[in-house]
Amino acid sequence: MRIHLYTSALLEKDDYKSKLIKILQHYLSLSPDVVLTAENPDIVHFFDAKDKHNIAYATKLYNMEIPILVSPLNSFFSWNSHHQRAKEETLKPKKYPIVNFVTAFHASGQLEYNQLKTLKTNKNIRLIENSVITNSITDELMAHQFVDYYKEILLLHDKIVKEKINQKVSKFIASDVDVNGNMKNLCSMFLYIEYLYHRHNIPFNILQELSTAMFEAEYNEDKFAEYLETLKITNFVEALESVLFSRSLLTEGFMPIAFKEGKLADKIENLITNYSK
Fold it and tell me: What's the chain look like in SS3?
């Protein structure tokens, strides 16, 4: 997993939040499942819900369909100035724009968890205690719980993306023509890889899965070519096949249309990563 722990100038001035980020940076860098990077991340983790820099960046990530985890760290709370106690209130998305772009939330305590539940949205929420402010959890265990949460968020996000793709494909490919479902399956895989292309991150193992599926599939080539045109992915598939030809040794006899070398194929090639998603 490629994780970006996003920090702004405002966060660097906040000692409490900076400590949490430094702990995560240390332990996540030791995890074999994590690569900490701002380049083509699989998920971005924010540490404040009100910072305007976060909202602007979250909007960009949302449009790129990159999942976002937010740790509000009590930034949603109003405080009673006389007693310095957090006042629990119902959260309204209109008041906090970042809510519209978030995939999941992290609550650092039960009060914050209860508050996030008032959003009445389908956002995923998990309570992970903050080792900066409590001795009931170690730094290492907290980081481990975050890794598990990142994995869960990615699985849920991918499931939603693939469901949308499958629905789109089903609208255009008739079951009576695609009796064995091979064309639907391959078109869904093509569209998913196109989605990864726009995310600037194509894991090589997914290309291997596609190559195997193409090698084993039987279909009507003429109809398949028509469906690719209808889905507006002919050019992308031609370029992708060129990459498969060089990377996985898939031959033309197992391709629905002829492959095409060129700039698009080169771009796809340059976005291939060798880690496991």
Answer: CEEEECCCHHHHCCHHHHHHHHHHHHHHHHCCCCEECCCCCCEEEECCCCCHHHHHHHHHHHHCCCCEEECCCCCCCEEECCCCEEECCCCCCCCCHHHHCCCEEEECCHHHHHHHHCCCCCCEEEECCCCCCCCCCCHHHHHHHHHHHHHHHHHHHHHHHHHHHHHHHHHHCCCCCCCCCHHHHHHHHHHHHHHHHHCCCEEHHHHHHHHHHHHHCCCCHHHHHHHHHHCCCHHHHHHHHHHHHHHCCCCHHHCCCCCCCCHHHHHHHHCEECCCC
Residues 141-177 have pLDDT tens digits of 999 999 999 999 999 999 999 999 999 999 988 777 7
Give the CA angle between residues 111, 112, 115 to the nearest 5°.
90
Which residues have CB under 8 Å from 261's CB, separation 6+?
239, 242
Q: Which residues contact 95 (CB under 8 A, 6 or more apart)?
A: none
Same domain? For 205 and 79 the reply is no
- Tokens linked to 8: 């702004």
| Per-residue pLDDT tens over the stretch 53-64 | 788 889 999 998
- Domain check: are 215 and 100 in the same one? no
* Domain count along the chain: 2
Beta bridge partners of 79: 86
Examine residue 164 and state whether it is found in any structural domain, yes or no: no
- What domain range is 22 assigned to? 2-156
Q: Record the pTM.
A: 0.82
Most distant CA pair in the chain, distance = 76
